[in-house]
Design goal:
Residues 1-86 form the HTH arsR-type domain. This is Metalloregulator ArsR/SmtB family transcription factor. InterPro entries: ArsR-like_HTH (IPR011991), HTH_ArsR_DNA-bd_dom (IPR001845), HTH_MetalResp_TranReg (IPR051081), WH-like_DNA-bd_sf (IPR036388), WH_DNA-bd_sf (IPR036390). It comes from Streptomyces mimosae. The protein has 101 residues and is α+β, with helices and mostly antiparallel strands. It has one domain (3-100): Orthogonal Bundle (Arc Repressor Mutant, subunit A), CATH 1.10.10. The protein is 65% helix and 14% strand. The protein has 5 helices and 3 strands. It has helices at residues 3-6, 10-19, 26-31, 37-49, 68-100; strands at residues 24-25, 53-58, 61-66. A hairpin with a 2-residue loop joins strand 2 and strand 3 (61-66). The protein is elongated, with a radius of gyration of 19 Å. It starts with a helix and ends with a helix. The relative contact order is 0.15.
Length: 101
Amino acid sequence: MSALDVLADPTRRRIVELLAGGELNATTIAGRFASSRPAISQHLGVLVDGGVLTVRRVGTQRLYRIDPASLAEASDWLSAQAHRWERVLDALESALDEGTG
């Protein structure tokens, strides 16, 4: 599953936004949501399996952090799509200007 697939869910996007400030444990992350801890744990699992987050154990805690490489891949794809649409819209604008000029 790609980073874009994983980030399609709004709860998972909010988790990533929380982790933009740095590494957090599962309990802290779950405490920021109205959802149950098992539901947040499932979201964390999807984010880890999708390569968006990494997890490490420190004692009994699981600490989550963003894997920047996966987000760079998603960013590159989005940038390419934006560039494509800019070219299309620029061509349309030129055609419309020629038609009125």
